[in-house]
Amino acid sequence: MIVPALEMRNIVKTFPGVRALSGVDLMVQRGSIHAVVGENGAGKSTLMKILSGMYQPSSGDILIDGAPVTLASPAVAAHFGIAMVHQELNLAPDLSVAENVFLGRTPRRGPFVDRKALRTGAKDVLGTIGARLNVDALVGGLTVSQQQLVEIAKAYAAGPRIIVLDEPTSSLSEHESTALFDVLRRMRAQGTAVIYISHRLREVLAIADEVTVLRDGALAGARPREGLTSEEMIHLMVGRKVTDLFPKQAATIGEPLLEIEALSDGRRVQDVSLTVRAGEIVGMTGLVGAGRTEVARAIVGLGPRTAGTIRVRGHNVAPRNPAEAQRAGIVYVPEDRKRDGILPTLCVRENITLPILTSLSRLGWVRGGAERAEAQGQSRRLGISPSDPERRVSLLSGGNQQKAVIARWLASRPAVLILDEPTRGVDVGAKAEIHAIIGDLVSQGLGVLMISSELPEVMAVSDRVYVMHEGRIAPPLERHELDERRIMALATGEAVT
Amino acid sequence: MSVAPLSPPRHSTRSMLATAGSLALPLAVVAVLLLGVSTSSNFLTVSNLLNVLTSMSIIGVIVVAMTFVLITGGLADLSVPATVGMGAILTLALQPMLGTVGAFSAGVLAAGGAGLLNGVLVGYARINAIIVTLATGTVILGVAQWVVGGVIVYGADPTSGNLLKGRVGGVPTIVLIFASVVILGHLLLSHTVWGRWSRATGDSLSAATAAAVPVKLVSAGAFVLTGIAGGISGGLLALTLQNARPGIGQGYEFSAITAVVVGGVSILGGQGSVLRAVGGLIFIQLLTNVMTLTGVRTPVQGLALGLLIIAAVALDLAVRKRGGA
Fold first, then answer.
1. What residue of A is the nearest CA neighbor of B189?
2. Is the pLDDT score of B184 beyond 80?
3. Is A354's CB within 8 Å of B210's CB?
4. What dotted CATH number matches A243-329+414-497?
5. Within an 8 Å CB–CB cutoff, is residue B213 touching chain A?
């Protein structure tokens, strides 16, 4: 029997309060390409962080070439021949291709860099993986796909037995991806075990020899590529039962409040149209990088907008910044609460009243009584706990911080509320409360556009769902049409009829 | 999948450090007072204390404005010596044509205009404030000198300084002017929309932007304030001394930044108050006075102040880090 290059057995990883992986197995053969697929949050990156020594498993075994190992740190993992190519590139833009390929392992003659060995070494590596690049070119001047090749060459130059590529094609065009696949096939031919993380099912079917599917932190299935279809993969990815965690409240749906037509941001978002009506919760989902957040930011003027029209209650608007969007009746609760949401050293009251402070003041002088009343009212309305509005917002739990950010925007009495991952990183109880708040708001006639990566949440809460894939949006699915497989098919670009 | 650790925020450590931080300054002032009383018989006299107050008043106007620069996260305004010089030179140079009040106002306006230039470059063009103000400082001073065509300007009307040297109810006029600036600055920061926007901008630029705060305007405004303050300070200085050299405001940026930072205003923005910054100024002025009275030599005084800045910044960063803010 052939000993696999890598075997991970029954890997469990728990974080305080969260079980990220519950008994995952992964077996990768030498000289093969092994794809690991799964929804956002299925546990792919946690598993890979364990493999690269960044995380320690809570339990489980890792065997390399049949021998059990402990990957105590990234350095130890590298010593065992494990190389990672991350989604974000880690290159020095002002150094040449050759210098980047041997970054940290520059060949030397005495105390000096051996430039000759550096250049020939880099040429060898690039030749082996079939990448046609000038070794003297500065990395900063290369295209993203060329930089990706440098990153791969850098990983490959260390002579790894196992190389992990995390979503390597997410920033590449189809043509560039094809070139990358040639590189992967060459590495396979050299006997390297290649682990390929992706959510593009078509690519997985095109290149992988074996496929492991993760779902909710557990193994959903491991199959050879032979005979596997994308329908089966989608089924494995989303096969969970939808529990009624999020009770849906009935609301009367009225006139369109927000109409977006042919919106583009000149980068990722292309030709996006959508409508949000009064009393309606519209879900927007897609995989990471599909362009959902970019759409929201373009609408409220936080991001660029190169084409398209925005109508609020039938009137054309073109907000250039959040203040103008707010006046037009559109407000946005950003995805990254810590960075773009809360003002950490300000208190709850100051966080809530910030966008409407002018209306609570006279000639620039803040009317203390009016401000306190507004803050207290919004805080009570959303059940922010602890109820003391003078408390510093950074001392609240994640869920209550999120409520404070939502409260901030309700105070301006908007027509449409855009929520970007409103329940990310909050506990289950707070999640239910936030869903109840959203339900309340639409029953009062607001329109809500909710961006979320969590399919169960999107399906339970939304009246209609838009799915984005690579900057484009699909026609909405009505509530009775909602089906996880259908959404995943749209999100991965594998549209099923 | 959420992997956010669910451990509660560390209230105790943070509030202890915060309490220590807020009590440190008053205690330090008391300590330096006691030190002064016990080491010098001249310290606790009306004339000495009035002397300290008068000498802190002119720099104090800048301290109030500099507080806004640090609070909005604008780092520091290093062009202060130039705006002080501009205010001083214009006040005396234009006095024969515009009269004392007119010339003083012209100096303040011109310095405010220089501040506006800084503000646009920092707030709107988003160039690093240190680089911008270092560069504009040289330009501003050059323009001021070129306009008056000389190196040193003398007062044309010696009586114009008398008002500033006079006293109202035993308190020197210049101290009263400083006190009014402090009160105005304090009210602006703690009770107005502008003040709230300033703190929000310094606390988190991206969150303030998303929360509809006009962050560019607010960042730029802080530099207009330091420009105006530099002009006022320079004008007062020139009228008091009855002469103005281009280098008249040399070192004022350092003294003002020291006071603001020692007063516990965060160099990272968002936190602090005008009154705390003034507290920092009082502490430094008293300390310098005690050192002078007890015969500590000037280089040693500089050493002490430098160490003080480092200690204050280190404390600020430590408090921020523990708070996870």
1. A365
2. yes
3. no
4. 3.40.50.300
5. yes
- Which of the following CATH numbers is that of domain A6-238: 3.40.1180.10, 3.40.50.300, 2.40.110.10, 3.30.420.40? 3.40.50.300
- Average pLDDT over chain B, rounded to an integer: 88
- Cα distances (angstroms) measured from residue A404 to each of A368, A385, A419, B260: 19, 10, 13, 31
**Alpha-carbon gap, residue A16 to A425, rounded angstroms:** 13
Q: Summarize pLDDT for B50-97 with one digit per residue, the tens.
A: 889 988 999 999 999 999 999 999 999 999 999 999 999 999 999 999
Q: E strand or H helix at A325, and its extent?
A: helix A322-328
Nearest to A258 by CA among A444, A448, A419: A448
Class of domain B26-320: mainly alpha
Q: Chain A 196-225, CB below 8 Å of chain B: which residues?
A: 217
Binning pLDDT at 50, 70 and 90, where does residue A111 land? confident
Between CA A484 and CA A458 the distance in angstroms is 10
Judge whether A350 is closer than 8 Å to chain B, CB to CB.
yes
Q: What is the mean pLDDT of chain A?
A: 88
pLDDT given for residue B161 in this prediction: 81
Provide the 10 A C-beta neighbour count for residue A192: 23
Cα B131-A90-A145 angle, rounded to 5 deg:
110
To the nearest whole angstrom, how far is the Cα of A360 from the nearest Cα of chain B? 9
Q: Is the CB of A15 less than 8 angstroms away from the CB of B204? A: no
Interface confidence, given as ipTM, is 0.86
**Tokens for A224?**
């050879």
